[in-house]
Amino acid sequence: MPAIAIIGAQWGDEGKGKVAHVLAKDADWVVRFNGGANAGHTVVFGEPPVTLKLHHLPSGVAYRHVTSVLGQGMVVDIAALAEELTAAEQALGYTPRWLLSRQAHLILPYHRLIERLGGTQKTLGTTARGIGPAYQDKAARQGLRVGDLLRPQAFRERLAQRLEALRRLCPQAPELAAWNADDLAAPLLAWADRWQERLVDPRPLLWQALDAGETVIFEGAQATLLDLDHGTYPYVTSSNPTVGGIGTGAGVPPQRLDEVIGVTKAYTTRVGRGPFPTELTDDQGEALRQAGAEFGTTTGRPRRCGWLDLVALRYAAQINGFTSLVITKLDVLTGFDSLPVAVAYRCGGRVVETFPSEIETLAECEPVYETLPGWQRDLREVRRLRDLPPEARGYLQFIEEHVGVPVAWASVGPGFDDVAR
Ligand code: IMP
Description:
This protein is of the alpha/beta class. It contains 14 helices and 20 strands.
């Protein structure tokens, strides 16, 4: 299984990290290609249990034999990454193998300040990690990159120029007046000096690995409907979590991918704002939130919950070319008598089966549901798809038929072994 992409099919938090963790066991490389510390998941594994809280690092760090790559499409907060690495080293008892692209952009303290001043936390529900402003600087060609840390004097000068420009733009921000380029640069430069040999161009290494038949996993952060270009703009993140992001964010072309796994929950959740046709604001939504423990890993926010949306899932399959689906949290649906699933939208007096390109239209869409029977049996011990209760099998079959992509596995509990294949 040489090159495998793991892509979120909904609005994030589908459980991509669990899929990556399970597959990384037999992999040589795990590569992150987009986003930064806006992602987050907790991995608990082994005996005695080891807990890793991951924001930047790919799931591969849980295995000694895997090289984890932070690709050039990422935006990296060095202080946060340093803490994450220290915590990972302490938990694992060794330094995992990791490499960071010199072309990845840096998140600097002023990016978080700009996010706060811009108010997108309130208007869009952004995560306050400085992600958007860092990508903004990248597109405006005024970003500072990891590789710039290897030329300390030039780095200090460029940082001083950027601070000066920002002071002119926001003369009222006291933080900007107080910050000094040399002080901000010092810990970053010290860190880069320590880890110099890990700051590389990973692309030739990945090309070589693929040529040699090694297994490379591309672990997406966020998801299709949060994609800057294909998601529900402007309620999106500022990177490309879809499969195209692997080309730009890791330098590996699409035809080298052997599998594109779409990861979707058996229902739908979203954090942050923006239209969500199958959202449940009643007791059933609360029941899903409690049963699925739907609270954000990075921000702790309660997630909005709703039924599965096959219009959106078909769209995600088209955008990404999914070769298989992994359905997570199937066990959370246990105990519901019936399970509505959206197969189309009613919009402006018409029934549509395609995902609208504008959020104003999406906001007007009412889901057209087909209701499937629920099941009562606990799924936690099930390890084969064919051993699921007939209603759960029917649920998965319904998804396969409506999306046109086979279901490879279903996750039936929080543990890494709780998977039916
Ligand atoms: P940003 O990525 O912080 O700019 O936030 C943009 C939008 O993406 C907001 O609605 C966030 O809640 C959402 N978002 C960012 N990262 C994640 C994630 O890992 N899971 C779910 N939603 C996310």
